[in-house]
Amino acid sequence: MTEAKEAILLVGGKGTRLRPLTVHTPKPMVPAAGVPFLTHQLARARAAGVEHIVLATSYLAEVFEPHFGDGSSLGLHIEYVTEQEPLGTGGAIRNVAPKLSSGPDEPVLIFNGDILTGLDIRALVTSHTVSGADVSLHLTRVEDPRAFGLVPTDGTGRVTAFLEKPQTPEEIVTDQINAGAYIFRRSVIDTIPAGRPVSVERETFPGLLASGAHLQGMVDSTYWLDLGTPAAFVRGSADLVLGRAPSPAVPGRCGDRLVLPTASVAPDAKLTGGTVVGAGAVIGAGARVDGSTILENAIVEPNAVVTDSLVGAGARIGSRTVLAGAVIGDGARVGADNELRDGIRIWCGSTLPDASVRFSSDQ
Ligand code: GDD
Ligand code: MG
Fold first, then answer.
1. Is 99 an active-site residue?
2. Model confidence over 130-186: pLDDT tens digits?
């Protein structure tokens, strides 16, 4: 079998808000390339043959269902399960098991909700079937693995250990990390204890290895990005628009820019590097916007220069202001002639007067 018909998408826990971008929208629903980020993952799973997806949610769960409904607009059957208290990754998986209809030996796709990836889901299922593993994990290589789960494998790809967020240099035994997508044999899900928090990374995987279970790793070098920071989110959105990150859900053709209907862009404004301009947003004359996400109804005034930045919904960027690697919260007002750089975050709704911040000398 080369297809998983069912999937569990993990979109709960504590870290799912992209603060200070917006107070009320959890990160999976912030638009990336013009649609809520989660849409890309759902559409990719659908394209790989998945028909039924259970969203395991805890935090601000009520925003998902009104948007995605029963999933039919994506050709999917989507169900929602909300935890009273966050159950952790493993607890969330176990908690939704009653919604699955797969047989005990059938493959179930499970994936983290904050990853943008070009993973060939069918190839992971095929590798799972061929190796006969209990669980198969997508692995990727990163330069600094400390913020991830380390997954060393033997010569045949069989997982030999799982080390979540290694603390000491001795623990850094590989640059292969858990990329946040798994195929579980259905019956393995039922072995996770129910009714209490469980971390799949810290408890389930090490426990399975200790009991002699077969965990198989599939390393590949496809596009992969953890959207844990606003900067990564902006990068991911631009890569979707540029076509570097493949998604059937990008609304329009891939290219240098994506301008959503009802946005207004001055004829001499320059939009490059995968910039997205959201519905109702306005880009003024002479403005230059590169590799950035401008959310709905934001205003970029004439001759502003915006690079690798995120401008929240309804925010206003004054004339000649320079943003580079900045995050401007929803509804914030940045006056004219400011210069904001290097990860600065302007909180939602706040106001920065004209000419109040610069990094370089006045000319
Ligand atoms: N439903 C539910 N309940 N989902 C949860 C919970 C929970 O209690 N806790 C976390 N999640 C979801 C998150 O929304 C996210 O989509 C996914 O599970 C992973 O949780 P994170 O909190 O984002 O973990 P991480 O980024 O520190 O590490 C994980 O991802 C790395 C790859 O980006 C681990 O799986 C690492 O091993 C992995 O390398
Ligand atoms: Mg994460």
1. no
2. 999 999 999 999 999 999 999 999 999 999 999 999 989 998 999 999 999 999 999
- Taking the CA atoms of residue 185, residue 37, residue 247 and residue 249 in that order, the dihedral angle to the nearest 10 degrees is 110
Nearest CA to ligand 1 atom 4: 12
Which ligand has the nearest atom to the CA of 12? Answer: 1
Q: Are 91 and 198 in contact (CB under 8 A)?
A: yes
What pairing do the DSSP bridges indicate for beta strands 288-290 and 305-307?
A: parallel
Q: Any idea what the CATH number is for the domain that residue 265 is in?
A: 2.160.10.10
Q: What is the CATH number of the domain that holds 69?
A: 3.90.550.10
Residue 235 lies in a domain: no
* 300 SS3 class: strand
Residues 6 or more apart in contact with residue 361 via CB below 8 angstroms: none
Residue ranges of alpha helices (H) inside the chain are 37-47, 64-68, 88-96, 121-131, 186-189, 205-210, 230-242
**CA–CA distance, 256 with 153 (Å, rounded to integer):** 39
Is the CB–ligand 1 distance for residue 56 below 6 Å?
Answer: yes
Q: What is the pLDDT of residues 179-237, one digit of tens each?
A: 999 999 999 999 999 999 999 999 999 999 999 999 999 999 899 999 888 889 999 99
Number of independent structural domains in the chain: 2
In contact, 150 and 172? CB cutoff 8 Å: yes
Range of the domain at 262: 256-352
Tell me, in angstroms, the distance from the centre of ligand 1 to residue 11's CA.
Answer: 8
In a domain, 186, yes or no: yes
